[in-house]
Amino acid sequence: MARILIAGCGDVGSILGLDLVQAGHQVWGLKRHPATLPAGIQPLAADLTDSATLFGLPPALDFVFYTAAADGFSETCYRRAYVEGVRNLLAALARADQRPRRILFTSSTSVYAQHQGEWVDEDSPAEAAGFSGHSLREGETLLWNGPCPATVVRFGGIYGPGRSRLIDSVRRGAATCVERPPVYTNRIHRDDAAAVLRHLMAFADPAPLYLGVDDYPAPQCEVMRWLAEQLGAPEPRVVTTAEGAEAAMRASKRCRNARLRATGFCFRYPSYREGYAALLG
Questions:
Q1: How many domains is the chain partitioned into structurally?
Q2: What is the DSSP string of 23-87?
Q3: pLDDT tens digits, one per residue of 51-93
Q4: pTM confidence score
Q5: Which three-class secondary structure state does DSSP give residue 187?
Q6: Sign of the CA dihedral 150, 14, 16, 154?
Q7: How far is CA 138 from the centre of its chain?
């Protein structure tokens, strides 16, 4: 049995924690308001951005998962979540003279600046110019340069129960997409994201970095048209970048999961079709 801390225990962290508890591990979930955590995960009320709240960490931790999310899309929010929070947690572990066997950190494929449909993997340059990419990269580097072995998983867009924005947009007939050139999107179901983290914790010698995406980088229009067909909704309206799709074009890339697959990981939802079909019931 391992002693595990999930720092920033939100949606993905809660699913991960439940799986780990069911496997017989002792799990603490750290968040500001832990009363909402599922039964079985031991609550730990603390704020990663406030070092004064981090003096009561559980002792003798074997693994730490850092699954915090930014409170909003601003430079301040991102730095608090992915830089200050990481720095504070590392300092708290050092104060308590704790050296977990591994820290696993949830990052994002948004660190990549590629936007013309290029294939991207763990060896590709991660040079996104925006504050979000910079903050995530700084948090990754803090962990890699820290005293404990660290593994970073750069997840694609996470979808699943409670994350129905795209489905709702298609259902309302409000969805738009760019068809030419195709805008490639990368995603992973929430349950697979949690399973990736659990798998890498148990893996004997994980690499420092993995891309956490499913098997199929899918063109934006294809996904929306498939959803429209399943929902009996109108097909999405095709727009040009001049009509407000510049942000989507900046994100167009195809992420490879070959390194993750080579560890023996198997997806429950290998593409958007299986994942969204489960959501639509």
A1: 1
A2: TT-EEEEEESSGGGSPTTSEEEE--TT-GGG-S-PPSS-SEEEE----SSSSHHHHHIIIIIHHH
A3: 999 999 999 999 999 999 999 999 999 999 999 999 999 999 9
A4: 0.96
A5: strand
A6: negative
A7: 16
Peptide bond into 217 cis (omega under 30): no
The span from the CA of 82 to the CA of 112, in Å, is 16
Identify whether the C-beta of residue 175 lies closer than 8 Å to the C-beta of residue 169: yes
Per-residue pLDDT reduced to its tens digit, 133-147: 999 999 999 999 999
Does residue 96 lie within any of the structural domains?
yes
Q: Which residue has the tokens 């990368």?
A: 186
Closest CA to 81 of 89, 73, 71, 91: 71
Q: What is the CATH number of the domain that holds 158?
A: 3.40.50.720
Decide if 111 is inside a domain: yes
Strands 184-185 and 150-155: unpaired
**Which pLDDT value is given to residue 179?**
87
Handedness of CA 204, 205, 210, 216 (dihedral sign): negative
* β-pair type (102-108, 63-66): parallel
Residue 234 lies in a domain: no
**Is the sign of the CA dihedral 51, 30, 190, 122 positive or negative?**
positive
Q: Which residue, among 46, 18, 48, 20, has the nearest Cα to 33 in the 3D structure?
A: 46
For residue 279, is it within any domain?
Answer: no
Helices (H) and strands (E) in the chain, counts: 10, 15
Q: Name, in order, each residue with C-beta under 8 angstroms of 168's C-beta and a sequence gap of 6 or more.
A: none
Residue in this structure with the two tokens 């750290």, named with its chain if needed: 30
Give dist(CA 139, CA 50) in Å, integer. 16
Complete DSSP assignment for 246-270: HHHHHT--EE--HHHHHTT---SS-
Domain that holds residue 205: 3-162+189-214
Residue 61's identity, in one-letter code, is: L
